[in-house]
Structure formats: C-alpha cells, structure tokens
C-alpha cells in the first residue's frame, strides 16, 4: 500500500506540537509537586505511577514492554511498590491535577486558544483505534475531563501514546531492542548523557548493545552510526509517522495550517517547562 506522504508529514508536525503539552505532566514543577506531596518522592516514582496508572496495578513487566526503552531494573525499582503509596486511581488524579496546574500557569492569557485547541484536537483523539497500542488503548478507556485545560492535556496524551505505541512497533520491526534503540539514536542526534542515565542502563548493558549494533554493521568500530544505521533509524521514523497518520487523514491542508498556527504559541509556552536536548528527542519549538 502506498504511503500517504502528506498525512505522514502532518503526523510528524503535530507530534512536535502536542508532545510539549503532554510532557509538562513530567517536567513542570506543579506536576512533580503533586506526586511528591502525595508521598511519591523522587522524579521516577511519580513518572512511573502516573504514566503506568491507566494499565492498573501492574508489575514491571508490562511497563518494560510498553515503555520499551527503560532498563528492566530501573522499572522494577518503582513498580509495583508505588501502588502501596498511591493506587492507580489516585495516581490518575495526581497526574490530572499536576498537569492542569502546570498548564494553567504556562498558558495563562491563552484561554481562548486553549478552547479552540480543544475543539480541534478532541475529535482527533477521541475514539482512536487502539489495536496493537496498549498505552493508547488504556488511556482511551478513561473519560475525557470536563475542564478545557484538562481536556487539552488528555487529548495530547492520547495522541502521543498512540504515536508512541506505533514507534515501539516500528523499532521492534527494525530488529532493535530498547537499549539498542537508544545507543543507535545517541550515535545520530541525542547525546548519550540524555539517554542512558534517564533510562537506567548500566555501562555494561550499553556497551553490549553497542557491540550488537556494530556486529550488524549499524555502528562503526568507533561508535559512530554507519549509513546503514542512519537509514535504519530513518526507516523506523518513517514507519512511525505512517502509523500515526490516521487521526490526521481527514484534515485538508488549510485546516492543518490553521491548527499549526493555533497550537504553536501553546507549544512554545509549554516548552519552557522542558529542557533541550531531552531524552524524548523532542526538538525545540521554532515558532
């Protein structure tokens, strides 16, 4: 089947716009304080509790599988113990409240734009097909909140987990495991210091993954990505974009342009809560 290049390009453009809106739930001080005030001390307890909560009180194995790039030992340090501090239902409340508080501050003065963004994004996010997409399906089973700022965050979250699930599938199809995906990415554009410590891999595990990539001809002996390695990543990214097309297919070019214009100031404001470079691989907004 021929790839719909226009829809795939739109999918990548939109990811860069809604990802910062979603990511405030991890990096903004209000979001971190919500978890810590509830007893989830340390960044990673809140992160794993909030992001995994839609899955229910799971152990580390489903989270290792669905989050993909985190070292199993790192996940196991948080799960399932966090559920004794905050059950999934409570963790969902904390992430909603933290994200809402952060967005309320970051998007002050943009209330009308938030309402218009909700009108545009909710139809794209509601009823997304969850086939083969565990995190998207789990979040899609949750009700949309009532307040516009919360609806905006929920819509952004559904879209990014939908895309993220497709990205994991693309990396698996490329024959990469979680650590290998990070090692190869670090040889192309995201520094190792932004990936390895934030995903919990030891130097031994990292070096072993690098050796496997070298044996496949994806890394040169000096650790630089070969052209084959770069092409593998390009192919995986293209497959990710294609898998994320569906919400954007109905939009004609003029509606895409209008949505980009609408979201750009919101994205720029939210990006002030993030750092660049970052382990997400998110580019700094240019608008």
Helical stretch tally: 14
Proportion of residues in helical segments:
55-70%
Strand content: under 5%
Task: Compute the number of strand runs.
Answer: 0
Shape: globular
Organism: Streptomyces rhizosphaericus
Protein name: SalK
Pfam family, one: HTH_67
InterPro entries: HTH_67
Short descriptors:
mainly alpha, 287 residues, single chain, 14 helices, globular
Report on this model:
This protein has 287 residues and is mainly α. It has helices spanning 5-27, 29-37, 43-52, 60-67, 72-78, 88-106, 111-125, 134-140, 148-173, 178-186, 192-199, 203-215, 227-243, 253-271. The radius of gyration is 19 Å and the shape is globular. The two termini are 34 Å apart. Residues 1-5 have low confidence and may be disordered. This is SalK. Pfam families: HTH_67.
């Amino acid at each position: 089947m021929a790839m719909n290049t226009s829809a795939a390009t739109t999918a990548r453009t939109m990811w860069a716009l809604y990802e910062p809106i979603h990511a405030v739930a991890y990096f903004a001080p209000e979001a971190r304080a919500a978890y810590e005030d509830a007893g989830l001390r340390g960044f990673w307890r809140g992160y794993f509790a909030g992001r995994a909560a839609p899955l229910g009180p799971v152990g580390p194995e489903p989270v290792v599988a669905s989050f993909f790039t985190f070292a199993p030992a790192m996940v196991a340090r948080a799960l399932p113990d966090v559920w004794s501090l905050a059950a999934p239902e409570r963790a969902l409340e904390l992430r909603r409240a933290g994200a809402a508080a952060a967005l309320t501050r970051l998007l002050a003065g943009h209330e009308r734009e938030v309402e218009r963004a909700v009108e545009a994004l909710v139809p794209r996010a509601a009823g997304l097909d969850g086939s083969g997409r565990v995190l998207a399906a789990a979040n899609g089973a949750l009700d949309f909140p009532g307040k516009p700022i919360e609806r905006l965050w929920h819509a952004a979250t559904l879209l990014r987990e939908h895309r993220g699930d497709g990205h994991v599938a693309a990396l698996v199809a490329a024959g990469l495991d979680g650590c290998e995906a990070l090692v190869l990415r670090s040889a192309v554009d995201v520094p190792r210091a932004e990936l390895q410590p934030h995903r919990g891999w030891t130097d031994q595990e990292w070096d072993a993954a690098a050796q496997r990539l070298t044996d496949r001809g994806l890394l040169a002996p000096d650790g630089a990505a070969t052209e084959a390695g770069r092409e593998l990543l390009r192919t995986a990214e293209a497959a990710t974009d294609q898998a994320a097309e569906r919400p954007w297919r109905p939009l004609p070019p003029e509606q895409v342009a209008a949505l980009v214009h609408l979201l750009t100031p919101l994205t720029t404001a939210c990006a002030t809560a993030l750092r660049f470079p970052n382990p997400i691989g998110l580019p700094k907004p240019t608008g």
